[in-house]
Amino acid sequence: MNRLRLILLALLILTAGTAYSPTAAFDPGKPKDLEGEARGPNVVDLDWRRVSGSEGYYVYRDGNRVAEVERSEYRDEGLQPATTYEYRVSAFDDDGDEGDLSDAVQVTTEALPGPSVPTDLVATAASPYRIDLEWSPSKAEAGLDFYRVFRDGEEIATTDNTSYADSSLEPETGYEYQVSAVDELGNESDRSDPSSATTEAEPGPPAPRNVMAVAWSSTQVNLSWSPPAASVHPVQGYNVYREGESIGFVVSTAFIDTGLTPETTYGYSVAAVDTRGVEGEMSEEVSATTDAPSDVIPPARPTGLRLVGN
Amino acid sequence: MWRERYMKAGVPTLAGFLALALASGCAPDGPGGGIPTHPGDTYSVTLEWDAPTTDAVGRPLQDLSGYRLYYWESEFTAGSETMIELGAETGVTVSGLLAGEYLFAVTALDTLGNESDLSDPLPVQVGP
Asked: Is B123 in Cβ contact with A305 (below 8 Å)?
């Protein structure tokens, strides 16, 4: 009986010990020297000192158990870039009993690389007022969001495209452009190599229309014409040419060429001059032949024809 | 053929300057100037010029007898001119003109009926 009583007592003590002191059966102490290192933007490598007698280890990330491993190391993958994680590990034995958690280690994943610098930027003058830009796309790990366009160092636009048309510029003016890329995380590349272009000169007026030359006498030819259809700058007058030589400037659309030789054919053309003083396109040449000479000597022609007020 | 060329040193002609000051030179016909205008309204234009003092080769002119006024509607189309015979006065008022652009020029006549070349033309915007 004494022997039986002894066994019962021993059993009682063992059971009570198991129930009230769970670590009593496996107490390797917490794992030591936990170290973590980011491997790029999405991976963290962990290792720690082996715990003798352990069957394996649990890995906790930010308080949640994320893995069970046999060896004293772990690669945590699929993480967010530029994010700080807190890791702890614990050992467990072949009964599944778990030891204490290690000290925490904090690891920050690397940021994604920013977008690459846009290349091959080409600026081309498209008109007196517009320059067209084109460049090669940037690579962006985080996804490209947009490009910034700079004119003479100042940001002027953002675009999703690899081209941009800069308008409302001044004629005959040089501009320098650069482009940078911005990814979905807001990371901006360096600015591209600059590319420059100079806007075209504004054209002079188009050619006058309906130029007519009609011989009036043996010494006179009457010229008239219509203004150009449209002109960037207003027309202030016309240069009149006879046989390619300038013979006058008039603000009206008519001219009388006088002092000519009888029975001679003359070619005429007219070009409009705008308010900048820029002469536009020459009209087609028209010609007229003066009349036969007369023997008589008429009066000189009247001069100073003018309107008078009423 | 685009060329850049600045205005001739000669600057705008007399006709050009006059053309800028047209408003004072033409007036609506009929009583009560200033009444709102309608299509078909006619206008008058008053012109003056300077008499020639020589003949075409520069000799003093002794036998000036009168003038002819010619006008065209905006262009010198051959045969499209209207001619008015005038006396020796160096001015005239032309009435009955419809609104539009006109070119005016005058010639001088001697007693033998020899006619001078045209004066420099005067463009006139007639009407409102």
From this structure: no
